[in-house]
Amino acid sequence: MPLVRFPAPAEPLWHEWDRKAQKSGLRHTVYAVNGDQYTGEWRDNLKHGKGTQLWKRTGAIYKGDWKFGKRDGYGSYSVPDPVTKEYKKVYTGWWKNDKKCGYGTTFYPGGEYYEGEWSGGQRSGWGRMYYGDGSIYEGQWLQDRPCGQGMLRLPNENRYEGGWKEGKKHGPGKFFYLDTGQLFEGVWAADIPKYGTMIDFGRDEAPTPTQYPIPKV
């Protein structure tokens, strides 16, 4: 008796519908239940590639790279100004696992901004911070605070160069009083100078030198 071959059963239609529903590769715009909106590339139903996310509650917007549903790569995050409603950049730079990581620039209220390295969403590594009063810190950071070696330049050009710990002067350092033409070299602990030596430094060029020079030892 000849062997009868039956045709393979047709694939259920829901399989085909499911494949078509899986967002992958192409750009799609999707609205969440809470009103958030994403327009961009997908992979396995996750944001992956280039895309733009808009958060309805805050109005914040992110444009850049995504990896399996999280911000990862290069991108910018902006928020609307509460008065003008115009978008202002908050952060532009690199991301990893949905957090700032790598080199980037963050803009703070009052005109302050930081440019440098990040890790896990915090300033870590080398960076430069521009403060609202005109001071500038340039050096090493750890867990969002100056830590290691760095220089703080004040608005009057006086500056400190030396060690830092948890955001405070700590360890050997030098403080240049360029307005009076003096230099203090010593050791700090938690922002307080513990001991050291004060000498004249650039006294002839100082705008407001002390009345009497410091005698040489």
From TrEMBL:
Subcellular location: Cytoplasmic vesicle, Secretory vesicle, Acrosome
Keywords in alphabetical order: Cytoplasmic vesicle, Repeat
SMART domains: MORN
GO annotations of cellular component type: acrosomal vesicle
Signal sequence bounds: none
InterPro entries: MORN, MORN3
Role of this protein: Assembles a suppression complex (suppresome) by tethering SIRT1 and MDM2 to regulate composite modifications of p53/TP53. Confers both deacetylation-mediated functional inactivation, by SIRT1, and ubiquitination-dependent degradation, by MDM2, of p53/TP53, promoting a proliferative and cell survival behaviors. May play a role in the regulation of spermatogenesis.
Record's protein name: MORN repeat-containing protein 3
Name of the gene: Morn3
